[in-house]
Specification:
- With 473 residues, the protein is an alpha+beta fold.
- The protein has one domain: Cytochrome p450, CATH 1.10.630.
- 52% of the residues lie in helices and 11% in strands.
- The chain has 18 helices and 12 strands.
- The strands form 4 sheets. A 5-stranded mixed beta sheet has the order 1-2-8-5-3, sandwiched between helices. A 3-stranded antiparallel beta sheet has the order 4-12-9. A two-stranded antiparallel ribbon has the order 6-7.
- A hairpin with a 2-residue loop joins strand 6 (363-365) and strand 7 (368-370).
- Helix 5 runs parallel beside helix 11 (216-243).
- The longest helix has 32 residues, at 271-302.
- It is globular.
- The protein starts with a helix and ends with a strand.
- Mean pLDDT is 87; it is low at 5-19 and 21-27.
- InterPro entries: Cyt_P450, Cyt_P450_CS, Cyt_P450_E_grp-I, Cyt_P450_sf.
- It comes from Erythranthe guttata.
- It is found in: Membrane.
- It holds the Pfam family p450.
- Belongs to the cytochrome P450 family.
C-alpha cells in the first residue's frame, strides 16, 4: 500500500513537472492560415488579384488578418508568407537555411540549371561567370552598342509618329538590346522568330503547372523548348567560330561563357547552364527594364517638376558630348537625379512582385515553425509601401534616395539583396539611363489616357500599354 502511494506521488510529480515545463516553453506550431484546396490553394486568388491590380491589398489584408507569418498554398506547394525587414533578411541572407527556389512553372520553363535554382558552389560558379560579362568594368564597353540600338529604335518607331504605345515599344527595344549584347544576333528573320517564341514562353511563368493542351502553361513549355533549340544552335555556331579564332571571347554573353576555361582547357560552364542562364537574363533584361522605363515615362508625364529636373540634368550632359560621339561611363555617373527618379519608380511599382525560397531544414521564425521543404514567399511592396519605413509612401519623392546609405538594409529590394542581389542590376541601370537620356532630349509627350492604374500578369502593365502623344524637339 505504501509502495503504491509513493509510486502514485512520483508519477503525479513527473506529470506536474511536464505541465509546468510546457507552460514555460509553449509548443511550437506552424503559422496560422489555410492551405486551401489541395494543389491549387490560394494560387488562383493571387493571380486574379494581380490581374485586377489588387494584389498588394490582398497581401496586406492577409498580413492584417494573420500577422507577419501565415501559411497558404501557392502553385502546388505549401507556402509560408513572411513580410517585413526581418523577413527580407531571412530570404536574402540565410543560404544555410533556405535554398534558391522558384515555382514549378518557372523551373520547368527556364530550366533547373539557372541561377534562380542553384545553390552553394554551383551558384557561386555561375554567378562568378555571369559577373565577368555583367560587372560595370565590362558593361562600360557596351554603352555604344546600347546607344546604337536605341538610335535605330527611335528612328524606326518614334520619329514621324504622333502617338505611340510605350510598353510594347520598350519591350521591343530591350529585346533588341538583349539580342545584340547577349547573343550577337543581328536583325533579321531569326531574331524575329526568337522574340515570338520568347513572348509565348514568358506568358505562363506564373501559372498552376498543369501541362494540359491549350493552357498558358502548355504553350509556354512548348515555346521554351523552341527557344532552347534556337539557343543550342547559336551556341554551336559560336563554339565553332571561337575554335577558328573568328570571335572574341568577350564579344557577347554566350561567347564570354564559352570562353571560360578550367585548368586543363575544359569548358567550365555546361551547355545546359549556358542555355538556362541566358534564358533567365533574357527574361530579366526584357521585362524588368522595359517596365521600369515605361513607368518612368508615365512619371515624367504626371509630374512636371520631376520632368523639368530630369531634362535639365540630361541637357547639361548632352552639351558636353561632341557631335558623333557616344555617352561615356562618366556621363552616366552624372545622371544622379535621373537614377533617383528610377529608384523611386521601382519603390512604388516594383517589376518583380515577389519571390520564393525553399526551406532546407525546419526553421523557427517569429515563434512559428516553417517545416522543411515548404516554400517561403516574400512580397516586394510590403516594405516599399510601409509608412514606418518610408514616410508618406504613396507620395512620389525621388529625394528619398539622395543618400542611399540612409535607407535601412533589406527594406528596399526591387533587385533582391545581399548575396542574392540581381547580377544584372548594373546592366538594367545603364539600359534605363541611356534610354531616358534619348527620350527626354528628343521628344515631348503627354498621356492619352488619364487612368493611372495597371495590372500584373505577372509584370505591371499600365492601361492600354501607356499610349502617349509625342512631338519631336
Amino acid at each position: 500500500m505504501a509502495i503504491s502511494l509513493l509510486l502514485s506521488l512520483f508519477i503525479l510529480s513527473i506529470f506536474f513537472l511536464v505541465i509546468r515545463k510546457r507552460k514555460r516553453q509553449p509548443t511550437k506550431r506552424v503559422p496560422p492560415g489555410s492551405l486551401g484546396i489541395p494543389f491549387i490553394g490560394q494560387s488562383l486568388d493571387l493571380l486574379w488579384a494581380m490581374r485586377a491590380n489588387t494584389a498588394e491589398k490582398w497581401m496586406s489584408d492577409r498580413a492584417k488578418k494573420y500577422g507577419p507569418v501565415s501559411k497558404m498554398s501557392l502553385f502546388g506547394k505549401p507556402t509560408v508568407f513572411i513580410h517585413g525587414q526581418a523577413a527580407n533578411k531571412l530570404v536574402f541572407a540565410s543560404d544555410g537555411k533556405l535554398s534558391n527556389h522558384q515555382t514549378e512553372s518557372v523551373r520547368m520553363i527556364l530550366g533547373d540549371r539557372c541561377l534562380l535554382e542553384l545553390n552553394g558552389e554551383d551558384h557561386k560558379r555561375i554567378r562568378k561567370a555571369l559577373a565577368l560579362f555583367l560587372k560595370p568594368d565590362s558593361l562600360k564597353n557596351y554603352i555604344g552598342k546600347i546607344e546604337e540600338e536605341i538610335s535605330i529604335h527611335l528612328e524606326m518607331h518614334w520619329v514621324g509618329k504622333t502617338e505611340v504605345k510605350v510598353l510594347p515599344l520598350m519591350k521591343k527595344l530591350t529585346f533588341d538590346i538583349i539580342c545584340s549584347l547577349l547573343f550577337g544576333l543581328e536583325r533579321g528573320a531569326r531574331r524575329d522568330e526568337l522574340v515570338q517564341y520568347f513572348q509565348e514562353m514568358i506568358e505562363g511563368m506564373w501559372s498552376i503547372p498543369f501541362n494540359i493542351p491549350f493552357t498558358r502553361f502548355n504553350r509556354s513549355l512548348k515555346a521554351s523548348l523552341r527557344v532552347q533549340k534556337m539557343l543550342k544552335k547559336l551556341i554551336s555556331e559560336k563554339r565553332t567560330q571561337l575554335a577558328k579564332g573568328g570571335e572574341s571571347s568577350n564579344q557577347d554573353l554566350i561567347t564570354c561563357l564559352l570562353g571560360i576555361r578550367g585548368a586543363h582547357g575544359e569548358e567550365v560552364i555546361s551547355e545546359d547552364e549556358i542555355i538556362h542562364n541566358v534564358m533567365l537574363i533574357m527574361v530579366a533584361g526584357y521585362d524588368t527594364s522595359s517596365v521600369l522605363i515605361t513607368f518612368i515615362v508615365r512619371v515624367l508625364a504626371n509630374y512636371s517638376n520631376v520632368h523639368e529636373a530630369v531634362l535639365k540634368e540630361q541637357e547639361e550632359i548632352k552639351k558636353g558630348i561632341s557631335y558623333g560621339c557616344f555617352l561615356t561611363w562618366e556621363d552616366l555617373g552624372k545622371m544622379k537625379y535621373t537614377w533617383e527618379v528610377a529608384m523611386e519608380t521601382l519603390r512604388m511599382v516594383p517589376p518583380i512582385f515577389g519571390g520564393f525560397r525553399e526551406t532546407l531544414e525546419e526553421i523557427e521564425y517569429q515563434g512559428y515553425i516553417i517545416p522543411k521543404g515548404w516554400q517561403v514567399f516574400w512580397v516586394t511592396s510590403m516594405t516599399h509601401m510601409d509608412d514606418n519605413i518610408f514616410l508618406e509612401p504613396s507620395k512620389f519623392d525621388p529625394a528619398r534616395f539622395e543618400n542611399p546609405a540612409s535607407i535601412p538594409p533589406y527594406v528596399y529590394v526591387p533587385f533582391g539583396g545581399g548575396a542574392r542581389i540581381c547580377p544584372g542590376y548594373e546592366f538594367a541601370k545603364i539600359e534605363t539611363l541611356v534610354t531616358i537620356h534619348y527620350l527626354v532630349t528628343r521628344f515631348n509627350w503627354k498621356l492619352c489616357c488619364s487612368n493611372n492604374s495597371f495590372k500584373r500578369d505577372p509584370m505591371p502593365e499600365p492601361t492600354h500599354g501607356l499610349p502617349i502623344k509625342i512631338t519631336p524637339k
